[in-house]
Amino acid sequence: MSEILYSLAGKRVWIAGHKGMVGSAIVRRLRSEGCEILTTDRKDVDLRSQAQVEAWMTSLRPQAVFLAAAKVGGILANDQFPADFLYDNLMMEANIIHGAYKAGVEKLLFLGSSCIYPKFANQPIVEEALLTGMLEPTNEWYAIAKIAGIKLCQAYRRQHGADFISAMPTNLYGPGDNFDLNSSHVVPALIRKAHEAKMSAEPTITVWGTGNPRREFLHVDDCADACVHLMKVYSDDSHINVGSGDDVTILELTKLICDVVGFPGEFVHDLSKPDGTPRKLMSAAKLRSFNWKPSISLHEGIADAYRAFLGGEYAMRAYG
Ligand code: GDP
């Protein structure tokens, strides 16, 4: 077991972004930690407003913060809304991290993304690969904002001794995902396409790009479990990868999803859509050294995501 450096029991814990896929999974996971869970609604506090964030933090005084609030989206949304992805994410991070410092927050975990790494980083990608090469252009806006978030945590730790840490999850999926075909990530998009094709007995579904890119996937409940674990055992200025340590091709993923959904048809490739980065597998070695590993296989996880989709998670949101 890793040494417990910070206990959440009895603490006032704010989950910024609790309605998102990751934030809601963290709320579910925290229910067994004996802490008081604090959340804010978008209509009450616009996280892009420094004044609103600081007023809220000063009055509610959270002791620990999970910074899961973000404007997120798949490969197409990132490319189409660069200003939103850069501005909204920068503002939310800066306001919450600076606000946490001012309000005397004891511990903060910032959630980033594996897209912070260079497009052609050696695989599996170790934490030290950050800022060693060009980013993937289809999501560089989001990536730059997330890199700024890591640097903010480091800067407040260095200058003010704040115990702020950063975790970089791989591609996540699961309950609460965004199933809108234009803005979603690949897993919810393919679940929806396979399900709708099955229901209307269509012979094919469309897969974007060549199907050759390789991606790593993690169920969001595993991610939430890793975040809670890191909050307790990790205190360092370097960010830490949160992944499964395995990857699959998009074609292998498509076959698995069709199998789970029960869609017997074929795939056609839409080559007008981008492949994005050729491979994105993060090294899980550092996280393993802190005694954490995932417990949900890709097959089980996809089955769970499909159940959530059928259960009405099919919310048509612009982005997560
Ligand atoms: P990325 O990991 O940032 O590239 O984000 P995505 O999850 O959006 O895409 C991952 C890969 O899946 C890319 O190579 C996409 O071209 C591919 N892909 C295949 N079909 C789809 C689809 O229907 N939607 C999305 N978003 N990606 C798809």
UniProtKB/TrEMBL annotation:
Q: Where does substrate bind?
A: K193, W208, R215, D275
The keyword Cytoplasm appears for this protein: no
| Catalytic site positions | Y142
Q: Name one GO molecular function term.
A: isomerase activity
A Pfam short name: Epimerase
What is the E.C. number? 1.1.1.271
Entry keywords, A to Z:
Isomerase, Multifunctional enzyme, NADP, Oxidoreductase
Which chemical reaction does it catalyze? GDP-beta-L-fucose + NADP(+) = GDP-4-dehydro-alpha-D-rhamnose + NADPH + H(+)
**What is the name attached to this protein's record?**
GDP-L-fucose synthase
Originating organism: Rhizobium vallis
